[in-house]
Amino acid sequence: MTATSTPPPKGLKAPKRSLPAVFIAIAALALSSCDEQSKEREPYLAHVKVESVRLTPDVVRASGTGEVKARIESELSFKVSGRVISREVNVGDRVKAGDLLARLDSTEQSADLESAKAAVASQEATLRMASSVLARRKALTQTGALSQQDLDSAIQQFQSAQNDLDAAKARLDVATDTLRQTELRADADGTITVRGIEVGQVVQPSTSVFTLAHDGARDAAFNVQESVLTGNRQPLAMEVALVSDPSVRAKASIREVSPAIDRSLGTVRVKLAIENPPPAMSLGSPIVANVDMERQERINVPWQALMSKAGQPAVWTIDPEKKTSRLKQVEIQRYDSSKVVLSSGLQAGDLVVIEGAQFLRENQQVSFDAGVAR
Q1: d(CA 132, CA 126)
Q2: 3-state secondary structure of 126
Q3: What integer pLDDT is reported at residue 274 of this predicted model?
Q4: Fold classification of 65-71+216-295 (topology level)
Q5: How high is the pLDDT of residue 374?
Q6: What are phi and psi of 150, to 5 degrees?
Q7: Which of 48, 342, 320, 74 lies closest to 211 in space, CA to CA?
Q8: pLDDT band at residue 40 using 50, 70 and 90 as cut-offs
Q9: Any idea where the Multidrug resistance protein MdtA-like C-terminal permuted SH3 domain is (predicted)?
Q10: Distance (Å, rounded) from C-alpha 200 to C-alpha 88?
Q11: How far apart are CA 289 and CA 222, in angstroms?
Q12: How far is 361 from 374, CA to CA, in rounded Å?
């Protein structure tokens, strides 16, 4: 088949295309294509959240719980053995010096005392007889009726009787003191904190029966981990407060650190002297000690800002003029619950990335809100 063109009907002319219009259309298409390519070549700007770090007062604090105790405590005990026939006080009772606390059966001690009294009376009679004999022999010796040997014998008997009387009196004193020891009395004003006997119980000498907390100064006693006491740092300030009412507070200072370690707990006993303890801090009250160990100006960053560089801690920083990222190594002083305290690596005013740092790289162009940086 042969293609033929159909001529326009008579009276109509074929439309003429405008050459400039065609060029304009082609140019528009070319410009549109260039815009799309430039958009494709435009670099991606990561948007991050930044924070301007600053020096803030950094206080290293430590705390622990303990109890209020008397500075002086007495372990009271009988010096003789026996059966307890009465107990006059209980835990928590206040006593005065000399008050009767408990009594032992004193039947045996009373018998020993009567025997000692009788021995003293007998020796006194013997001494009187020896003294009379000595006087007579002295008189007879002066007249020549007796020899010097007889006088020396009388003197020896008198001295022996005198020594026997002194020994009998010493045994009487011991018996008297032993009978007195069957009664246990308070050695000072205070409060009974521990009771270790019951009526009818047989106790041995030097067995602790009561613990007496003396009136006066009060201490706060704590069991502290041995590692806390290493080093030469001295506390800057110490304060104790009641666990039940933290508003009840008092200043404190270290009074005693035990040289021995509790092997079962790995702790050391530490006592703090409480300055002017309020009345609410009674014996046995649970308290908490707050200790300021160190104060210094340091920079801290949020946990989420912490990264790693060559296995060392680092953070992303932003150059505010170039708006580029940089990973800077830092040294950490310590980790707190909500922040990381730094010892070096940053300067006050540095912009630190706190959000959006996961996909950053060195010298990457970023965008951030100027109002966020402070």
Answers
A1: 10
A2: helix
A3: 93
A4: Elongation Factor Tu (Ef-tu); domain 3 (2.40.30)
A5: 44
A6: -65, -35
A7: 74
A8: low
A9: 301-358
A10: 13
A11: 9
A12: 24
